[in-house]
Amino acid sequence: QKEVEQNSGPLSVPEGAIASLNCTYSDRGSQSFFWYRQYSGKSPELIMFIYSNGDKEDGRFTAQLNKASQYVSLLIRDSQPSDSATYLCAVGLLNSGGSNYKLTFGKGTLLTVNP
Amino acid sequence: GAGVSQTPSNKVTEKGKYVELRCDPISGHTALYWYRQSLGQGPEFLIYFQGTGAADDSGLPNDRFFAVRPEGSVSTLKIQRTERGDSAVYLCASSLYGGRAYNEQFFGPGTRLTVL
Known about the structure:
- The complex is a heterodimer.
- Chain A is mainly beta.
- Chain A contains no helices and 11 strands.
- The relative contact order of chain A is 0.34.
- In chain B, about 40% of the residues are buried.
- The model of chain B has no long low-confidence stretch (mean pLDDT about 95).
- Classes of the chains: A mainly beta, B mainly beta.
- At the A-B interface, strand 5, strand 9 and strand 10 of A face strand 5 and strand 10 of B.
């Protein structure tokens, strides 16, 4: 069973709309949750992280976490064509040896914002 | 300041050959991570260094893969007897500290490895 699930998309929204990206994870012990953006042919860059239930806002981005439902989402308000990229959800879980909060990534959701 | 750098950016090799991939982390970052990203997939964890030691190598797929970080800065990922299935982008990331839940990992541009 895949540990971190994302809809691969593509998700297509018009410019100015709200884009909603979703992610579910399987391990209830997961402690930290990250959203990375990856442009085609480039490396991932961190947008936001969240670790407690509820919402966390940063500019046009809002991350939402619901640990009971094992669900994390990213909302992008006023979407711009420059937001077109693959969005990767990553979940941090302490390994069995206690030495590393290992990140497990989903496959990513491709977002296209149409002008 | 300079970000994470990786060399080479592209590497084409033949099946059975040995390759080395290099990562130069952000200066002062004690934690270094290697990931592998196949087409259409998210990055897959390979190994984590805290300083000079491999604190977690649970992601290395088999004993053909090995990584070192002898002085706690630059790291080299070594792949012996390469196979076509090893073809992927190998990403390196670093963070200021390791062993914490909320580390921000900064990724390098990656090395695209193609095994013919």
